[in-house]
């Protein structure tokens, strides 16, 4: 009788899933038996994968550092490598003797293509490969219209999601991770990747504001449920800020949507019960944006609605664009939002819509330039939400706000920051001689934007 071949090490390739609990790939590796090698590859070489922005790199540094500590506490270690992922993974297999590779799925086209090619090559070479659903409640190809096409409107997509079986329950975190094969593997020094800014060090506000990592994610979720969920219906008021602040943790997979979903479906304060549905609807909006990305791979560079290809954008004046980026437009709510972004790496959602509308419709600057700035400065920028939300404001996206909906920053401030608390927090010089006059006239530029929109519709044959 032939002797059974012993189970070789399993290589767990982490990407946007920097957690130990509810990590299906890691869970499978442990169930399989044998040693487990946990690796993260920083890949800026594979075509089609968008390099991270500066704020996201800062977050990633903190997250990887904490993950390494979490692994060490369980008898394992995190192997860090950089380079084209296919080449690095092949090297790690050779070095560790792994006979299986597992990962959690990604949904942007460049990442999907790279994963599919690697899976094919590894399988043909005799390596066992498995991928798993980890970071979306509903994978894009599983929720479709009655005609078998992707949803383009959110509300029917949301209803279709609610009609599905309840999302699976999360996997627990492992207590120990056998990792003999990883003990001697070389690993990069995280500091050598240069993700922490030094000259200048602009991340002081991010350090004050955030605690990246899996533990920080769950602390944030519990704080939201305890302190803010009951007031979630008033989330449009930026000074009160009752939003969850879970977006960067979800973006880097330090917490899974399955964990969020089932925690909200569990015990919450009685005063907050009425807000659970509204919050989970926003979780599903994230899912919808991923459906849009899945069916529209060039979402960050091309208009979802092709008629917007006819729109006549202004040639951006560098000084005007810089004034918007730095919060020096002379429009208080816009400036407050842009300064909050620079200091903390996030911006209140209501204000995000206002500053985006101002760039697109009052300055007539192409939404793609705003999307690129947010990509570099947001800690929660991801391939789906960032471009999809910019296109929503521009009117060029799926289920977008109509272009003629122009957010007037003064009216928005009077309605949602009536006492000026948010503006005063971020623009302390407002109301003094040090504060500049507005760089544009809001009424005049609104009329100009609507004229351009009408011209675009005529060119596209829609008028």
TrEMBL record:
* Species in which this protein is naturally found: Frondihabitans peucedani
Cofactor(s) needed, names only, are: FAD
Q: Which domain of life is it from?
A: Bacteria
Q: Which SUPFAM superfamilies match?
A: Cryptochrome/photolyase FAD-binding domain, Cryptochrome/photolyase, N-terminal domain
What are the alphabetically sorted keywords of the record? Chromophore, FAD, Flavoprotein
Domain Photolyase/cryptochrome alpha/beta, residue spans = 8-137
Q: Which residues form a coiled coil?
A: none
Protein name, entry field: Deoxyribodipyrimidine photo-lyase
GTP-binding among keywords:
no
Record family assignment: Belongs to the DNA photolyase family.
Q: Which InterPro entries match?
A: Crypto/Photolyase_FAD-like_sf, Crypto/Photolyase_N_sf, Cryptochr/Photolyase_FAD-bd, Cryptochrome/DNA_photolyase_1, DNA_photolyase_1_CS_C, DNA_photolyase_N, Rossmann-like_a/b/a_fold
PANTHER family from the UniProt entry: CRYPTOCHROME, CRYPTOCHROME CIRCADIAN CLOCK 5 ISOFORM X1
């Amino acid at each position: 009788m032939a002797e059974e071949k012993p189970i070789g090490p399993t290589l767990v390739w982490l990407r946007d899933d920097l957690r130990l609990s509810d990590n299906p790939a890691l869970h499978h590796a442990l169930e399989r038996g044998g040693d487990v090698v946990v690796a993260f590859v920083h890949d800026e070489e594979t075509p089609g994968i968008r390099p991270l922005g500066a704020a996201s790199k800062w977050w990633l540094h903190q997250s990887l550092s904490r993950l390494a500590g979490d692994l060490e506490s369980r008898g394992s270690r995190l192997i860090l490598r950089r380079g084209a992922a296919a080449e690095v993974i092949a090297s790690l297999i050779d070095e560790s003797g792994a006979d299986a590779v597992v990962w959690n799925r990604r949904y942007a086209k460049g990442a999907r293509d790279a994963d599919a090619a690697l899976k094919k090559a590894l399988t043909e070479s005799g390596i066992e490969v498995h991928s798993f659903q980890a970071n979306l409640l509903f994978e894009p190809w599983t929720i479709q219209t009655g005609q078998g096409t992707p949803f383009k409107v959110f509300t029917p997509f949301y209803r279709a999601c609610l009609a599905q079986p309840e999302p699976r329950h999360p996997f627990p975190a492992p207590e120990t991770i056998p990792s003999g094969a990883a003990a001697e593997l070389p690993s990069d020094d995280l500091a050598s990747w240069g993700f922490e800014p030094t000259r200048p060090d602009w991340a002081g506000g991010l350090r004050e504001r955030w605690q990246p990592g899996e533990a920080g994610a769950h602390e944030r979720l519990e704080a939201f449920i305890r302190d803010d969920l009951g007031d979630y219906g008033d989330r449009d008021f930026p000074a009160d800020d009752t939003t969850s602040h879970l977006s960067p943790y979800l973006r880097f997979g330090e917490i899974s949507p399955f964990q969020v979903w089932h925690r909200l479906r569990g015990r919450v304060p009685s005063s907050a019960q009425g807000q659970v549905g509204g919050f989970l609807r926003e979780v599903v909006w994230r899912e919808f944006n991923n459906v849009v990305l899945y069916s529209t791979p060039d979402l960050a560079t091309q208009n979802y609605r092709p008629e917007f290809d006819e729109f006549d954008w202004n040639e951006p004046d560098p000084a005007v664009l810089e004034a918007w980026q730095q919060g020096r437009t002379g429009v208080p709510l816009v400036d407050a939002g842009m300064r909050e972004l620079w200091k903390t790496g996030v911006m209140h959602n209501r204000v995000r819509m206002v500053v985006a509308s101002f760039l697109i419709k009052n300055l007539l600057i192409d939404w793609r330039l705003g999307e690129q700035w947010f990509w570099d400065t947001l800690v929660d920028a991801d391939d789906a939400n960032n471009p999809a939300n910019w296109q929503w404001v521009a009117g060029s996206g799926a289920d977008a706000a109509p272009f003629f909906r122009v957010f007037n920053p003064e009216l928005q401030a009077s309605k949602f920051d009536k006492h000026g608390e948010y503006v005063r927090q971020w623009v302390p010089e407002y109301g003094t001689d040090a504060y500049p006059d507005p760089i544009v006239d809001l009424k005049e530029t609104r009329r100009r934007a609507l004229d351009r929109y009408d011209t675009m519709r005529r060119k596209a044959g829609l008028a």
